[in-house]
Structure formats: structure tokens, C-alpha cells
Design brief:
By secondary structure, the chain is an all-beta fold. The chain has strands at about 1-5, 5, 10-20, 20-25, 30, 35-45, 55-65, 70, 75-80, 80-95, 100, 110-125, 145-160, 175-185, 210-220, 225-230, 245-255, 255-265, 270, 275-280, 280-290, 295-305, 310-320, 325-335, 345-355, 360.
Length: about 375
């Protein structure tokens, strides 16, 4: 469909699922499991034909059905269905884009291009009539209605190209560095606590401005990628940390094995949807997978530096032939004994079989062993 000279795109997203959420309070278990279905028709149209300026407008209407809702005390989840409806309108602006080309002619690149991209967006969500009765067991799907939010930021991109005789693919431009700076303003400060665009924004803070997020990605060589993220809050609460958290991750992809390692630090205590408090943490994580012909596997773990504890480890091994295959998996958890973790300690062993053209079959009764604590 076209509006004048500009194309208009219409899409419909639909999702349904069951969320199992068991809250343990002392020796009592509270079942907050619910069914959820979601439908979001949307329409999008570009509003600019200039090569250095992108302007896109999006309008959508979202309807979400929940099989349960919150009672009058706004805490107890009862078996009374509820539907959430709201409209969402958004305009995204990128540009004016400014670029410059350099010719260093060194070992890294023959040609280098620096791209400077300012960006701005405005989003408005309509009021949600029954917002206070929407269950929060899903956690990530908490939406505050009647909010206008404005995001603004800058992105710097560095593209390089190294020409090599006899290798045309090597002449293609490669993004060696991408650094972006971003912040969001909300007309309702409560919306800042539930914006999934920021990794460390979920805390007991009432602030109309989100943290300032700096995100960088570097690829010095094609198989190596390094990601860094830090979030800073210039208006942190009294005695609260201004540097909310940071993460550093690296990935090396090379046949027959891929390796990923990283470090994450959160400088404040986190309050979950159940009201439990999870202390600040400092973690290391690593993962590796390999495959050689028909044999392969993967190893991953998370290590809590503050508690000096291996909180999660997982080992997978498999063998695949032309007709069938077999896979073995072992997983162990050792999270803090905190109500915020639904499954603090557990060990599991699982085995599955694969038949070519049919599918995979595992233990119908769940992982072998179950909880061993």
C-alpha cells in the first residue's frame, strides 16, 4: 500500500502462551500461573525521502487477554479474566547523517568511513483503564499507560575496507566500531522502572529520566567481537550509586569451536516483582561450543565473584548420524537462598534421541534426577 509516493507497511503480531509462576512465601506456595494471548496490528510509513534523513511513523493497537487478574487489594491474583487495551504511536528520526571518508592505507584498512548519526524518537501510549488490575507475574510485560516518552542519542560508526587481490569478499565494508549514547525522558516517572531498553533501570527509583546508556561494539577482526555497556544515573537517589552497572563480553568464532566470555556488575540491590530483594552482584560468565563432523557439545557457567560460588553450570554432548542421534545434558544451579529465585538449588540430567525427518524425543517425565537438595 502507498500513501502518495511513500510506501505504507501493515503487520499483525500475535502471541499466546502459558506462564507458570509459583511464589514461595515461607512454607506456603502461591500459584500465580496464567494464560496470556496478545494481538498487535500495526501500520508503519516512512515520512522522508532524503538520503541523509530517516523519519518513520508507526501506529499500533495492542490487545492482551489474561486468564486471571488482581483482586481489589491489588495483590491477590484471582481467577477472573481481564483484557488490556491501549494504542501506541511512535515517530523515529535518524539524522541528519554526516559522514567522512579517510584513506589511511595501512594494515587495518585502505579506506575508512566515519558516520555520525543523531537520533530522536517520540512515543505516546494511551491510558489503560484497568491497569492496576493487570497481573504482574510475567514481570517483563509491565506497561504504564498514559505516558509520552522521548528518547535522544548519538551514534558513531566506523566502517573499514581492506582490499585484497583475488578475494572480492574481503573488499566489502566492515563495521569495526559502533559507539552509541542514549537517554529517555518520561512524562510519568513510573514508566522508567519498566523500560526494557535499559539493563539496570529496574530498581526503586522515581525519576523522569532514564539512566544514560553507553553501548559500544568493536570487531578488530572478523571472528572477534567485543561488547561493552555501562549505565550512569546523574540523578540517583540519596546514597545510591550513580554508576548503576556495566558489562563486558567477548566472542571468538572460529571453526570448529566458538568461545564467549564476559563480566557483569550491578551496583544496587534489585527488588523483584514478588517483593524479594536481591543484593548487588558481580559475575563472570563463559560459554563454549564445538562441533567436529558428527560429534559436538557445549559448556557454560556463571560464577558469582562476591559469593565465590559457581551459581550455574551446564554441559551438553551429542552424536548425530545420518538416521538418528543422541544427546546428553547435565545442569546445576546454586543461586542464593532468596525468595526472588524460584528454583535456588537444583541438579538435572537429561537424555534425548533424534530420528531424521521425525523429531526429537526426551524423557516424558522431565529431566532425570530432579531436585537433589
Amino acid at each position: 500500500m502507498r500513501l502518495g509516493r511513500l510506501p505504507v507497511f501493515a503487520t499483525v503480531n500475535a502471541e499466546a502462551g502459558q506462564y507458570v509462576f509459583i511464589q514461595r512465601v515461607g512454607g506456603t506456595e502461591v500459584d500465580k500461573t496464567l494464560l496470556k494471548s496478545d494481538v498487535t496490528p500495526s501500520i508503519r510509513a516512512p515520512l522522508s525521502t532524503l538520503p541523509y534523513l530517516q523519519v518513520n511513523a508507526t501506529a499500533s493497537y495492542r490487545t492482551t487477554y489474561y486468564s486471571e487478574s488482581l483482586a481489589d487489594d491489588l495483590r491477590t491474583q484471582i481467577k477472573e479474566p481481564i483484557t488490556r487495551n491501549f494504542g501506541d504511536m511512535r515517530i523515529d528520526v535518524i539524522g541528519p547523517v554526516v559522514s567522512r571518508v579517510f584513506t589511511p592505507d595501512n594494515a587495518i584498512a585502505d579506506r575508512m568511513k566515519h558516520v555520525f548519526e543523531p537520533n530522536f524518537s517520540v512515543q505516546r501510549r494511551t491510558q489503560i483503564a484497568n491497569q492496576e488490575r493487570i497481573p504482574t507475574a510475567t514481570g517483563y510485560d509491565v506497561i504504564v499507560g498514559g505516558v509520552t516518552q522521548m528518547s535522544y542519542g548519538l551514534t558513531n560508526r566506523l566502517l573499514v575496507r581492506k582490499d585484497q587481490a583475488g578475494e572480492p569478499a574481503a573488499s566489502a565494508p566492515r563495521e569495526m566500531l559502533n559507539v552509541s549514547l542514549r537517554q529517555t525522558y518520561y512524562t510519568d516517572a513510573n514508566a522508567a522502572k519498566f523500560d526494557q531498553s535499559y539493563s539496570y533501570g529496574f530498581q526503586n527509583r522515581i525519576n523522569a529520566f532514564s539512566p544514560i546508556a553507553l553501548v559500544a561494539r568493536a570487531t578488530p577482526t572478523t571472528p572477534l567481537a567485543i561488547d561493552y555497556r555501562v549505565e550512569y544515573d546523574p540523578k540517583a537517589i540519596a546514597n545510591g550509586p550513580k554508576l548503576l552497572g556495566m558489562s563486558l563480553n567477548g566472542t571468538l568464532r572460529s571453526a570448529p569451536a566458538n568461545v564467549t566470555a564476559g563480566w557483569t556488575r550491578r551496583a544496587f540491590a534489585l527488588t523483584t516483582q514478588t517483593g524479594a530483594v536481591i543484593n548487588a552482584d558481580n559475575q563472570l560468565n563463559a560459554a563454549s561450543d564445538f562441533r567436529y563432523k558428527s560429534v559436538g557439545g557445549s559448556v557454560s557457567f556463571n560464577y558469582d565473584i562476591g559469593r565465590s560460588t559457581l551459581i550455574n553450570q551446564r554441559y551438553v554432548g551429542f552424536y548425530n548420524a545420518q538416521c538418528c542421534g543422541v544427546s546428553f545434558e547435565y545442569q546445576s544451579f546454586n543461586y542464593p537462598n532468596n525468595p526472588g529465585y524460584l528454583l535456588p538449588r537444583d541438579r538435572r540430567f537429561n537424555m534425548s534421541f533424534t530420528l531424521a525427518g521425525v523429531g526429537s524425543f526426551s524423557n516424558f517425565f522431565g529431566a532425570f534426577g530432579g531436585s537433589t537438595y
